[in-house]
Amino acid sequence: MTTLGVFDSGVGGLSVLRELQKQLPTVSCVYVADSAFAPYGERDVATIQARAQTITTYLRLHHGIKALVIACNTATAHAVEAVRATHPDLPIIGVEPALKPAAAQTVSGHVGILATRGTLSSERFLRLRTQVESSSSRTVHFWPQACDGLADAIERNRLEEVQALGQRYMTSLFNAGPQAKNIDTIVLGCTHYPFALETLQSAALGHGVRFLETGLPVARRARELLVPMMPPEPEPGLVLPPTLFSTGDATGLSGAAQRWIDPKLFAHTVSI
């Protein structure tokens, strides 16, 4: 059996996990929510790197994973290169804001980016933005918006707070400058944010925007890597449920997984 490790600071990576389940139903996914240290977007770089290394080692030693998905934009931005250096034999897939697809799809040439402050300030994000801006066949203006507290509100299922913060940051985004009203594409640069999509869409009514997330591209990349490692003829109709762990109270992860993936899922607490 092929096992894939997936981790995030909390429940946000479930937006990636549900796409992985669709693309790789016969792969055993082990998901770790580092809830005891969430949200990563408000942690220092050294802590994020240390947690990424600890969780990766745990997944390899205790679950024998064949590949790893870092289902967190902030952890990818600050730790994926260090984890790859420590585990050079392990295929590792990170997530990053979908700036390249957004640049290709925008009609107006104005793209909003909703992300954590940690992601937006990272060298990896700045390199990605520079690369996309320089390689685009036309001028694309990116409008970054740091969404302090939004991931944490989603993590804790505080619906009124999610709505208030979503409205605040969308308003701030469209008022960021004279041309910001022309934004027609918005990148969800945090894996938590797809779970606030209805709120964000409601706040964008009248602006005619499309939202881009990263779950499906990541899942497709994981499929490319794992299919060669899988048995040639998996059992017909087999769908393996994910195994879920939380480094904090597992109740929140269980509830989120039941809401967004499968009502029969439950998470367990793990001390790592």
Automatic annotation (TrEMBL):
Its EC number is 5.1.1.3. Substrate binds at D8, S9, Y40, G41, N73, T74, T191, H192. One of its GO terms (biological process) is cell wall organization. It catalyses: L-glutamate = D-glutamate. Belongs to the aspartate/glutamate racemases family. HAMAP family: Glu_racemase (MF_00258). This is Glutamate racemase. It comes from Hydrogenophaga crassostreae. The gene is murI.
